[in-house]
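Why should sequence recovery work at all? Because a backbone constrains its sequence more than one might expect. Tight turns favour small or flexible residues, buried strands favour hydrophobic ones, and helices have their own preferences. The token representation captures these environments compactly. In the example below, the structure is given first.
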């Protein structure tokens, strides 16, 4: 077999391996939106999401939110107000909307007037 044919086979195999690897990386890092919860005024929305790699391969029935993720709040015009990582997605259920912001115990406080997010340390 000539060197040219060996080189082409190697090149084809390399392209296939890189393509499959790229697909796997893309699939594992994509952001999956779990829920959107608007504030009472409709001016802001809390978006809860996770990356595919954060979800375990198997969970017990009824425990689909028993893994980590992220929460962020956006204004209606798309301006991001900040966000925080969540050790458990179900923590997002404790978000409390307030007159000029929101609070999530264990994550932080959003101040919509100032456009800031103050994470809890």
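From this structural description, the recovered sequence reads:
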């Amino acid at each position: 077999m000539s060197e040219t044919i060996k080189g082409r086979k190697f090149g084809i195999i390399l392209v296939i391996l890189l393509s499959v690897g790229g697909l796997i990386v893309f699939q594992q890092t994509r952001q999956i939106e779990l829920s959107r919860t608007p504030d009472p005024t409709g001016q802001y929305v809390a978006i809860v999401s996770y990356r595919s790699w954060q979800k375990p391969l198997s969970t017990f029935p009824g425990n689909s939110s028993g893994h980590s993720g992220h929460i962020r709040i956006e204004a209606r015009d798309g301006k991001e107000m900040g966000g925080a990582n969540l050790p458990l997605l179900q923590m997002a259920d404790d978000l409390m909307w307030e007159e000029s912001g929101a609070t999530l115990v264990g994550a932080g406080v959003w101040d919509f007037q100032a456009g800031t997010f103050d994470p809890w340390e």
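A few observations help interpret the result. Strands lie at 31-38, 44-51, 69-75, 80-86, 96-98, 101-104, 108-111, 116-119.
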